[in-house]
Design goal:
With about 450 residues, this protein is of the alpha/beta class. It is built from 17 helices and 13 strands. Strand 6, helix 8 and strand 7 form a beta-alpha-beta unit. The structure holds uridine-5'-diphosphate. Its EC number is 2.4.1.-.
Length: about 450
């Protein structure tokens, strides 16, 4: 047996969404801090640029080599849409299709690089198959939580009934929660996609962006369902970047009292309807709360902020409210001591980041995994879900009521914050150990495969 190998090369291959690319990149950096890996990071040019722009240090400090993935050129999908950060919702299926069609370019990349290991994502079990066909082991890295994955997996294997955690599952899941403005997805389809194929291709273990302090029982249940050891890698919150524009926001936040401000944002892929935005604006006007609200429009729907908000709104709230168009330095905002709550769609990264910084959530889930992520944090005592009306819309009064209970009222808010802080501490205590464990496991897989190849 040859045990002299001192370095292994890992090829990282995330799906093109921001909420996948960045966790893969953070994981790369963390693995490099533990073991002598060399990392190839494969994504589209626009995603690679986006990572480069977010960096504090030079990329050469990290021993990460970017490898550009060329998507086929489709007339309706120019290269600036080769990421989900600004792609209009109607072009998402085309982006998915282009990504699938890039499998032959990816096959060439794998043949040229011959890495020791591939780390792949939920949307491309085909990449794992390509690697296996060339004798390269592949490990699935799940950027969603264990709760949603065990829910979908259970649904796929056992159907609708007997999900062992009733606080998470309830029967009106599809009827109401999934009827958001931004689109809907059938649980059956998601279950099929999530559970079929992706786990099966993963070599012995599955890495998952979570921590035991938040999801232990779901991690255990998922391990049983998918017959793979689930290895948590923690929240993977990106390091803060010190930029002028960000310090402007921090300066503004510093004028606000501790725990007095709500951050309102719905992730990197969601666009609210005009009606829903008006309800949120009206809700923010009903109570005297400080807020930062990130307002987003996609290319095909680029109306001005003024037109999309109630007349005179900006003027009326200018002392206590800040509207950011398009994008905000979320982690830095959540880390600020003035944060009293995060009104969020409860995308998995947002949930993890909020808990990491001990900020309670005011949940406004829109689609896919978000309703289930919401129930997890409500169950954990660190979130309050906004009640929606029978049409699935969030109305101003309920928005105001929920923000008031979390941010403005001591009796309810302090308990939620204490829980968020408690979970935050657990998360931070686990962080180091989980990355060590993940790096060890990956190293062993590489080593085992290396020995097999050497002896054959
Ligand atoms: N994000 C950000 N600024 C924004 C919007 C999003 O930094 O204005 C980041 C956020 O910190 C998180 C990710 O984008 O890391 C969004 O991931 P999440 O899973 O919450 O939602 P998704 O975009 O996948 O729906």
């Amino acid at each position: 047996m040859d045990t002299k190998q001192t370095s292994f090369r890992i090829l990282m291959f995330p799906w093109l969404a921001h909420g996948h690319v960045f966790p893969f990149f953070e994981l790369s950096k963390k693995l490099l801090s533990k073991k002598n890996f060399h990392i190839y990071f494969c994504s589209t040019a626009i995603n690679i640029d986006s990572i480069n722009n977010s960096l504090q240090k030079n990329l050469s400090d990290f021993s990460i080599e970017f490898v550009e993935l060329h998507l086929p050129s489709l007339p309706e999908l120019p290269p600036h849409y080769h990421t989900t950060k600004n792609v209009p919702p109607n072009l998402m299926p085309t982006l998915m299709q282009a990504f699938q069609m890039s499998s032959s370019s990816f096959s060439t990349i794998i043949s040229n690089l011959k890495p020791d290991l591939l780390i792949y994502d939920a949307f491309q079990p085909w990449a794992a198959k390509l690697a296996s066909s060339q004798g390269i082991p592949a490990v699935y890295f799940a950027t969603s939580g264990a709760t949603i994955l065990s829910f979908f997996h259970h649904f796929h294997t056992h159907g609708n009934d007997n999900f062992p955690f009733p606080a998470i599952y309830h029967r009106d899941y599809e009827k109401k929660d999934m009827k958001a403005e931004t689109g809907s997805i059938k649980v059956e389809d998601a279950a099929e996609g999530f559970a079929f194929g992706i786990f099966k291709q993963s070599h012995d273990i599955v890495l998952i962006k979570t921590c035991k302090g938040l999801e232990e029982k779901y991690i255990d249940y998922l391990s049983i369902l998918c017959q793979r050891k689930m290895v948590p890698v923690g929240p993977l919150v990106a390091e803060a970047k010190n930029e002028e524009e960000n310090s402007e926001i921090k300066k503004w936040l510093s004028t606000k009292d501790q725990f007095s401000t709500v951050y309102v944002s719905f992730g990197s892929e969601n666009y609210l309807s005009k009606e829903q935005m008006e309800e949120i604006a009206a809700g923010l006007e009903l109570i005297n709360v400080n807020f930062i609200w990130v307002v987003r429009f996609h290319d095909g729907n680029a109306v001005g902020i003024d037109e999309s908000l109630p007349e005179g709104f900006l003027e009326r709230v200018k002392e206590r409210g800040k509207i950011l168009q398009g994008w905000a330095p979320q982690a830095e905002i959540l880390a600020h001591s003035s944060m009293g709550g995060f009104m969020s769609h409860c995308g998995w990264s947002s949930v993890m980041e909020s808990i990491y910084f001990g900020v309670p959530l005011i949940a406004m889930p829109l689609k896919i995994d978000q309703p289930i992520n919401t129930r997890l944090v409500v169950e954990g005592g660190a979130a309050l879900e906004i009640v929606r009306d029978d049409d699935g819309l969030f109305r101003a009064e309920e928005v105001a009521k929920a923000i008031k209970m979390v941010v403005l009222e001591k009796s309810s808010g302090e308990g939620l914050r204490a829980k968020a802080m408690e979970l935050s501490q657990k998360m931070k205590m686990e962080e180091e150990e989980t990355i060590n464990e993940a790096a060890d496991q990956l190293w062993q897989i590489c080593m085992k495969n290396h020995d097999i190849v050497q002896s054959s």
